[in-house]
Design a protein that fits this description.
The protein has 165 residues and is of the alpha+beta class. The chain is built from four helices and four strands, in the order ααββααββ. It has a four-stranded antiparallel sheet with strand order 1-2-4-3. The longest helix is centred in the N-terminal third of the chain and has 28 residues.
Amino acid sequence: MENNDAPVEFNDDRTVCVTSVKGLKENWQRWSNEHQEYQKHNPFSNDRGAMVRLQRDQDGYGRPLEGSLTEQRGQDAHVHISREVEELCQVIRDIGESCGDGGGEKGPVVTVEFGKLFEHYVNISNKVVGILLRARKQGLVSFEGEMLWQGQDERVLITLLHSPG
């Protein structure tokens, strides 16, 4: 039997392992702290006592956190819906009938019956009524009634007041 009194040398793998575990612990702690802070702003969190509540008159009330994925999704949805409203106005312009002068800069007033618009636009999007309501809210179109129903409101005139822009 050989007596080997030489000190045991650790190879670098063990040091790397200890360092990475320390790094994992620090990363986990940082994530935990960030998550706890996030939960203070989350209205669905179970920790109601720690939640920061904004009042109606404060900036940020009713809005997602700045820079959050929720804010980004909202911005993306707004851009998408705006494009659909523009497209709807273009379809009305293309298939509608000009009737008179819109008062100078606006050009002629264009109208189309809901039934005709529905037939053409449903190939593009099945959300034609929702997009019409959005366009009316933006002051781009007008029509009688609160809601339009296929079959029942085929003859209701949709008037293009002006194009988005």
